[in-house]
Structure formats: C-alpha cells, structure tokens
Specification:
Elements lengths: L4 E6 L9 H9 L6 H12 L6 H20 L5 E5 L6 H10 L4 E6 L6 H18 L5 E4 L7 H15 L9 E7 L3 H5 L3 H20 L5 E6 L14 H10 L4 E6 L7 H4 L1 H13 L2 E4 L7 H15 L27
C-alpha cells in the first residue's frame, strides 16, 4: 500500500497544573463524573508537578522512531496526535493536510484490542477526518501488537531483572496487571484472550531465562466505574492480599497492558500498590514496561513495513490476526 505519513496516536495528558482539570474533563466527558472525583485524580497529577510523564515519554519515543525509520529507509514523516489533550488528533490531521499528505498509518500506544484500547482511537480518527474536511488524509490503524516479540521480549527481560532485585527471588510470585474495563466491554472484544496470550508468552520467556516456572496470576487496576457495574477482577491490591494470606513474601508486578511508565503505572502501582505491599509485609518490585527498549522501537518499524510492503506479512513475528479492519460486532460497548 502507498503511505506518505505516520501518525503517532496516544491518550494525552496535562503538561502543567492548569491543564489538569481540562484534561480530566476531556477524559470523562459524557460520563457524569462528579467534580469531587476529578479533584481526587487531579491531586495525583500534582504529586508529579502537575504534568503527566506520558508526554515526555511519547516525545522521546517519537525521536527514536524517527531515527529507526531513517536507519531502515522508511520515508514517512511522523505526526503526533492525542485523544484527550493537545496536540490532538484533529490538529495532527490538519497539519498533514496542509503538508499535502494523503494517506497515513497510525500507531496507537495500546497493544491490545478493546473499546478504549482500539475502537475509540479509530473513532477519534473518524471524527478528526470529518473536522478536517473533504480532503482529509486517509488513516489506516496499525494492527494489535500484544504478541509481537518487540513488545514481549522487553517485558521478559524486565521481569527477570525485577526478580533479581527481590530478597528471595526463587520463592517469588508474579502478578500481571492490566487496565480493568467493564465486563460487558470485555465480552465484546478480544481483550481478555489477548491478555492471556501475552501473559503466557512472558511467563514462558521468564522460565526459559531463569529455569524456574514461577506461579503467576492476572489482576486488574485503575477501575473507574460505579460499584454497581461489573468490571474485570480481581483488583491488584486484592490479589496482593490473597498472596500475603498464603504466606507469599516476594512479588513482582508486571504491567502487561501498558507500554510505558505513565501515571497508571507510577501512581497506581509504584505508590498505591507499593504501600499495600508494605502493609502486608511483602517485598514488591515492579517490572519496567516495554517502550524504553530498542526492540520496541524496531517493532514499530516492523509494523510500518507490514503496511508498506504486504509481502513481509508472511514472515512477521507475532499474531497478525488483526491486520484487517475490525468486524462490525467488535468492541461495540462503550465506557
């Protein structure tokens, strides 16, 4: 296929304290979230100087992608567009239009398929194209990459490094964490199946490197819905308590559904869950996410090449089941 641009599409976040509430209002628009709840979350950002770590992470990642593209002869200028804060996707598409770009591929900073992790980004693109007008660039979303070695291998290495930081790594257990979503939403998406596949790949890789078949479980975090609505469980803090009651004293947390160390990692895990572990007398180490790794950047170039040259698909690592457009019945349930 012919492409002349690359869209780096992410969630967005505040850059300074005055951005926090407008950003949170964007995130929760239409969901009737009380102002008091927004203030609670705003205080979490204030602990980090009023800004999200995601912005600098993404900007650094884009620079590394540009270098990798240049090294591999991929001649695609990179545009940056967010869902919830500037630079927005519609701003990126408007700039593409001014630059005469006609067709872009979009890389989304979510490896898995679900409404918030995939479908909502595609809807953002549709909305941005309408706002841009009749000559808006066409945009094709890159496939899910939850099983690609460029995503999995860094998690394996980072998990082994985390195990080695524990007082007694041989007796440790692993908790893989993923963002919780409503059960109805999970039922309408490949999210749980993909999480299970990715977790199994990481566990197998850890055993290959260490020679130990570590016990593991999948838990969830960052729930934001009303108590009356069923969401994916168990919560990571509840799972940690369960392990503590069984006498487990060494735990590694692997944030399997996140590609970078953003707020839901550095606050929810590194502060809240770490404090819970201290209360339970558990030695806890959190594995780093994947995006710092050169393998992750190389993966993005691999995914771009799949669209630039479809003949490479047959040799592509990872599960390529999502190369085609999503079905009409996929991810129909909204937040």
């Amino acid at each position: 296929m012919s492409f002349d641009a690359f869209l780096f599409q992410s969630f967005g976040g505040p850059n300074q304290e005055s951005d926090i509430l407008p950003f949170l209002e964007n995130v929760t628009r239409g969901r009737d979230v009380p102002r008091e709840r927004l203030e609670v979350v705003a205080n979490q950002y204030r602990l980090f100087g009023g800004k999200s770590p995601l912005n600098e992470i993404n900007q650094g990642l884009i620079l590394r992608i540009e270098s990798e593209f240049a090294r591999r002869g991929i001649n695609l200028p990179i545009y940056y567009g967010n869902r919830n804060f500037t630079p927005y996707v519609h701003e990126a598409l408007a700039q593409m239009q001014r630059d005469g770009r006609k067709r872009a591929m979009a890389f989304v900073t979510s490896a898995f398929g679900s409404f918030p992790g995939c479908k909502q980004y595609k809807l953002d693109i549709e909305s941005a194209r309408k706002a841009t007008g009749i000559d808006a660039p066409e945009v094709v979303k890159i496939r899910h990459y939850y099983s690609h070695p460029g995503f999995i291998n860094p998690l394996i290495s980072n998990s082994v490094a985390a195990l080695n930081r524990l007082p007694a790594p041989g007796s440790a257990e692993l908790i893989f964490t993923a963002h919780s979503i409503p059960k109805a939403m999970a039922d309408a998406s490949p999210y749980l199946n993909q999480l299970t596949s990715a977790t199994n790949l990481v566990v197998a890789g850890i055993e290959m490197q260490t020679g130990i078949a570590y016990p593991y479980s999948l838990a969830f975090q960052s729930r934001s819905g009303p108590p009356s609505q069923p969401w994916l469980e168990p919560d990571v803090s509840d799972q940690l308590r369960t392990l503590g009651e069984r006498g487990v004293r060494n735990v590694v947390i692997v944030p399997i559904s996140f590609i970078s160390d953003h707020m839901e990692v550095v606050y929810d895990l590194d502060i809240l869950v770490a404090e819970k572990a201290r209360q339970l007398g558990i030695a806890l180490v959190r594995a780093k996410t994947s995006s710092d790794s050169p393998e992750f950047v190389s993966m993005i170039a691999d995914l771009a090449m799949e669209l630039l040259d479809p003949s490479t698909i047959a040799n592509s690592p990872g599960d390529a089941e999502s190369l085609d457009e999503c079905s009409t019945t996929c991810c129909t349930t909204r937040l």
